[in-house]
Amino acid sequence: MKYWPVLLLSLLPLWAQALEVGERLAPWTLLDQFDQAYTFDKHAQTLLVARSMEAAKLVDAALQGQPKGYLEARHAVFLADIQRMPRLIAKMFAVPHMRDYSYRIMLDRDGRVAPRYPGAQDKVLWLQLKDGQLVAQHEYTTAAQLREALEKARP
């Protein structure tokens, strides 16, 4: 009986495994801030993941002044994990405010997708992809770093 807790604790890292270079990312479908469906597939070259409001603000600051279609031109997708946001706040205030942005945000309202991509809460996770496989990953802590990386990812 004493071994069960040890066994369970030793299996915990398997549930939160980091992504490995060369790993194929599974497709998913989420709604954006306009309730339009988007299916993530092998055509995406960059996936930006924000797990908190602080991380989402970094993305917003990095994209300030960019024209509509800026992310799409770079084959980049922005995924925001909003599962911890109270639904009423999301529905009444946050999502309507997001409609003013010049870029699309795929909203993970139920935590079905974002947990697949482990990383720090306060950083933006950048997953570089080729044909659906992970080529590289980075984490950004400042809008300036993220903006510079996006500029280098020109189409």
Automatic annotation (TrEMBL):
Signal sequence region: 1-18
Domain of life from the UniProt record: Bacteria
UniProt keywords, alphabetically: Signal
Signal is among the record's keywords: yes
Protein name per its UniProtKB record: FAD/FMN-containing dehydrogenase
